[in-house]
């Protein structure tokens, strides 16, 4: 199950608590991408709305979010994602880099990928805007090597079952209706939502990953901020 | 009394939200069991008909059924809306797989804002439902439906009935939303015995087919609404029964206000297609679109596309249809299971013991030929009937079973499509060579050879189906062409039959032949005294020898 910790990430000046969820999966190398996409898309399904259209008098209307089924090729599993090619591309890019880093690191195949939702708090010059996370999802991955086809077949099913459990865990967390950023006014919307996509509007998020070296310590060999560091100062 | 705090507008809005939430819930569940991948488009411009800001199609029949079940009521305490998902095989056996329950409990949240927070949380709950409907075991089953079984749905309103799910069913909570009049909860109870079923099992050849109790017979509650298939056929299904669009379609126009958060402008209008709505906003394009859209749904249904609709047809995540064998005249009822000819009674003692009690055959639904499965019950020789009453095997057996037959050693009913070459069973020689003729089946008509009990005993005299034996001992032996486990040609390069024939008549022992025996006896008697004298002389040596043996 998800372990919820209320933590204040050390890298950022804390002004509020950010809840953190950790999920762990053991997968075969070729399953990494699909498993990560399944989890990330499920989280983002719940954390995306339709596009806001602001009108006068401070009212706004919300666009429509479409969904679609995705079948996995290497796992006996299917999941639902938001119908947005831009969002899918962004996630695939991040997951692809994570997978490559895992493969090239020469470690035992352990790493983690994190999806962080944050709000921007504008500061006055010369201080840059703060990014205040309010929800952090971490997926710890352990890559296993299998010897033969029979084991692979079993792994397909087992990982499928595990992912079903993860989806249930994610939904459980979402259902707690805990802190969500206040609905922003038009001037503030970019501090809360990613408005750059044309069809849907996820909360501001960033994806990062770490590869664990063979000693098990969480040494960052590559720490990168991918996607949506929308700050342009 | 408890809703005096709620303004009447809020109350009306809340009721409307709950009603449409219930309808959308049913749509999501049924669509997730159609067996097809669902795909809808995002739209940045709100269309107004998309309740909860989600693109969820409305299949007209499903809406119709849901409204019929609700009968104008809303889920309330003790009155839950349930969507029952079940599986029905080609022989007409059915089994409940899941019950999705939309319930209301008494826990109220007075502070919550109806048209803002409740609405958004209901939207979130629908997203959770989309996700959860893909992770219960019935999803994978429903993706494989069409040939040997179909998935049906049934909506009822009232008390939740979970008894049909078998023992040890599991529940998963999709979510809850608190409202001023109660807390809405959405959950699913599902049969656990599916959990270990993988789709692999449909490609293998499991021999077991238990009997699924026909629960329509046992259903305790009187108002059992008919089951409906999750995937729809076209054809006789006339769109006239279910109006594809309602006369007064309720559309949802939502405007949210951000400043201050407590204020909200929310309008829900009834749109008539001829009359423009009183509030003119640019979001209300819907009515026309909605009409056209729904219309398109019914016409595509009527056109009966036999091929699978590709994923690319984004608007039509629509059910596809299925192999022949369906009773086309009545779309909501599936195959009228047919019995082909007579089915011979089962022998009362299948030789394999308990395992065989569950071994039956059934022919997969190939559109034309059905053979009804035989009940595995204590009434041994009961001939099969379609609506199988009789004790249900444990649900675990049931679904392990399915639909692909395997020939067991003691098959009773010959299978048309099985040839001798495929039979990898012991006593293969007894498998009828001509599968059509039951008379040759030695299990039905054992060969008459009163001396031999079984072919592997005795002298291997055997008639088989080719007639009785002749007198010559060598020719009596009929080559058996199967491979008993114990015969290996490592030492002697010959098979069992040859071996036996070779060594069947060994030469007599010389001492047993009368002439030679008599001769040597006389000689022995004569030489006895001499031998005795010699032995007496050596008595001491003999004694010493015996000592060493002590």
Write the layout of secondary structure elements.
The complex is a heterodimer of chains A (about 230) and B (about 550).
Chain A: E1 3-7, E2 18-28, H1 32-46, E3 48-50, E4 52-54, E5 59-62, E6 67-71, E7 78-82, H2 85-104, E8 110-121, E9 130-144, H3 149-174, H4 189-192, E10 200-202, E11 205-212
Parallel strand pairs in A: 2-9
Antiparallel strand pairs in A: 1-2, 3-10, 4-5, 6-7, 8-9, 8-11
Chain B: H1 8-31, H2 60-70, E1 80-89, E2 94-105, H3 114-132, H4 137-143, E3 149-158, E4 170-179, E5 182-190, H5 200-203, H6 215-218, E6 228-229, E7 249-254, E8 256-257, E9 266-271, H7 286-302, H8 354-357, H9 395-400, H10 473-476, H11 496-502, H12 514-537, H13 539-549
Antiparallel strand pairs in B: 1-2, 1-3, 2-5, 3-6, 4-5, 7-9
Helix pairs in contact in B: 1-2, 1-3
Which key phrases capture this entry?
A: 233 residues, alpha+beta, two-stranded antiparallel ribbon, 4 helices, 11 strands, 28% helix, 32% strand, globular, disordered N terminus, disordered C terminus, B: 550 residues, Cell Cycle, Spindle Assembly Checkpoint Protein, Chain A, six-stranded antiparallel sheet, two-stranded antiparallel sheet
């Amino acid at each position: 199950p998800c372990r919820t910790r209320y933590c204040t990430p050390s890298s950022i000046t804390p002004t509020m608590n950010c809840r953190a969820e950790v999920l762990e999966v053991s997968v075969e190398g070729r399953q990494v991408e699909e498993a990560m996409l399944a989890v990330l898309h499920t989280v983002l399904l719940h954390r995306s709305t339709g596009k806001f259209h602001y009108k006068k008098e401070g009212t706004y209307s919300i666009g429509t979010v479409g969904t679609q089924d995705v079948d996995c090729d290497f796992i006996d599993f299917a999941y639902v994602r938001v119908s947005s090619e831009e969002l899918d591309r962004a996630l695939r890019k991040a997951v692809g880099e994570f997978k490559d880093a895992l493969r090239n690191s020469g470690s035992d195949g352990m790493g983690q990928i994190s999806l962080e939702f944050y709000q921007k708090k504008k500061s006055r010059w010369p201080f840059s805007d703060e990014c205040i996370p309010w929800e952090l999802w971490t997926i710890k991955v352990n890559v296993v090597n299998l010897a033969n086809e029979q084991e692979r077949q079993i792994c397909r099913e087992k990982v499928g079952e595990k992912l079903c459990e993860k989806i249930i865990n994610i939904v459980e967390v979402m259902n707690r209706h805990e802190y969500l950023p206040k609905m922003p006014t038009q001037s503030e919307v970019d501090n809360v939502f990613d408005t750059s996509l044309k069809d849907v509007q996820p909360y501001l998020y960033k994806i990062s990953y770490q590869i664990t070296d063979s000693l098990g310590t969480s040494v960052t060999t590559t720490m990168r901020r991918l996607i949506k560091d929308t700050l342009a100062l | 009394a408890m809703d005096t705090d709620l303004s009447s507008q809020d109350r009306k809005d809340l009721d409307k939200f709950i009603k449409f939430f219930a309808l959308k819930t049913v749509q999501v569940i049924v669509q997730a069991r159609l067996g097809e991948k669902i795909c809808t488009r995002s739209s940045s411009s709100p269309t107004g008909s998309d309740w909860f800001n989600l693109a969820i199609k409305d299949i007209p029949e499903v809406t119709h059924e849901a409204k019929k079940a609700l009968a104008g009521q809303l889920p309330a305490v003790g009155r839950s809306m349930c969507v029952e998902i079940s599986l029905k095989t080609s022989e007409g056996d059915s089994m409940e797989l899941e019950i999705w329950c939309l319930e209301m409990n008494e826990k109220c949240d007075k502070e919550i804002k109806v048209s803002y927070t409740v609405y958004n949380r209901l939207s979130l709950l629908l997203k959770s439902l989309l996700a959860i409907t893909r992770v219960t075991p019935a999803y994978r089953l429903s993706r494989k439906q069409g040939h040997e079984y179909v998935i049906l749905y049934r909506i009822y309103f009232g008390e939740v009935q979970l008894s049909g799910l078998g023992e040890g069913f599991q529940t998963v909570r999709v979510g809850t939303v608190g409202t001023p009049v109660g807390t809405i909860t959405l959950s699913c109870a599902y049969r656990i015995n599916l959990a270990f079923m993988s789709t692999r099992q449909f490609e293998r050849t499991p021999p077991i087919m238990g009997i699924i109790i026909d629960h329509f017979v046992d259903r305790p509650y009187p108002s059992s609404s008919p089951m409906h298939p999750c995937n729809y056929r076209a054809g006789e299904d006339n769109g006239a029964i279910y109006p594809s669009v309602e006369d007064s379609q309720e559309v949802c126009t939502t405007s949210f206000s951000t400043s201050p958060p407590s204020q909200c402008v929310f309008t829900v209008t009834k749109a008539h297609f001829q009359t423009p709505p009183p509030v003119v906003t640019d979001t209300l394009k819907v009515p026309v679109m909605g009409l056209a859209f729904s219309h398109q749904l019914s016409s595509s249904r009527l056109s009966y596309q036999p091929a699978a609709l590709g994923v690319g047809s984004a608007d039509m995540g629509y059910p596809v249809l299925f192999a022949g064998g369906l009773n086309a005249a009545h779309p909501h009822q599936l195959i009228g299971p047919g019995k082909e000819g007579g089915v011979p009674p089962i022998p009362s003692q299948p030789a394999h013991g308990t395992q065989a009690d569950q071994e039956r055959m059934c022919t997969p639904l190939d559109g034309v030929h059905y053979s009804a499965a035989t009940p595995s019950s204590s009434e041994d020789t009961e001939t099969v009937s379609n609506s199988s009453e009789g004790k249900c095997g444990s649900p675990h057996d049931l679904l392990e079973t399915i639909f692909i037959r395997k020939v067991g050693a003691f098959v009773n009913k010959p299978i048309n499509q099985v040839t001798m070459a495929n039979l990898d069973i012991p006593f293969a020689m007894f498998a009828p060579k001509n599968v059509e003729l039951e008379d040759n089946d030695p299990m039905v008509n054992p060969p008459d050879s009163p001396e031999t009990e079984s072919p592997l005993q005795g002298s291997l005299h055997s008639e088989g189906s080719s007639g009785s034996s002749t007198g010559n001992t060598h020719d009596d032996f009929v080559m058996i062409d199967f491979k008993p486990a114990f015969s290996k040609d490592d030492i002697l390069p010959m098979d069992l039959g040859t071996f036996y024939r070779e060594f069947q008549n060994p030469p007599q022992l010389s001492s047993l032949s009368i002439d030679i025996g008599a001769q040597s006896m006389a000689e022995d008697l004569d030489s006895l005294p001499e031998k005795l004298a010699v032995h007496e002389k050596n008595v001491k040596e003999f004694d010493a020898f015996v000592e060493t043996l002590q």
